[in-house]
Amino acid sequence: MLIDTHIYLQLRQAVQKLSTGERKLLDRSKVVFVSVVSLWEAAMLHQIGRIKGDLEALIELPAPLVLLPIEPSDCLIFGALPAHHRDPFDRMLIAQAVAKRTPILSRDEAFAAYTSSGLMLLSPA
Question: Is the pTM of this model over 0.85?
Answer without folding.
Answer: yes
